[in-house]
Amino acid sequence: MASSALTGKLETDVEIKASPEQFHDMFSNKPHHVHHTCNDKIQGCDLHEGDWGTVGSIVFWNYVHDGEAKVAKELVEAIDPENNSITFRVIEGDLLKEYKSFVIHIQASPKNGGGSIVHWTLEYEKLHDGIGHPETLVQFLADVSKDIDAHLIQDN
User: pTM for the whole thing?
Assistant: First the structure.
């Protein structure tokens, strides 16, 4: 990405009770189950190319953000089971109406005393100066994390 006022990076940490492995498994191997945990936010995730849990696969999300139904087609760029991380690059969808590029990196790390810290990183380049930073999307992802956590710990 070019270094300018158009590029940005937002990060947030979310404390959860589930293990890093459980949270990572949901996004890397079972993203099609995410909508079961927060169907008010995520309506579905379909596999368009490849296999679940593999780099190079393409997944298609249906979600509601800021009160609007939206879609995102994402390429799975990286999966690191050792570090419980996954990286998605948005290749089509609503985000690309405002951003030239958009990458989402998720990493779950063990927390002292149990549970995990989920670290979300959004890296993006806006199409022009009139576009805001995606702060509401960061909150949306934090809320999704908490919903997934509630589902995961209920299963234990």
Answer: 0.93
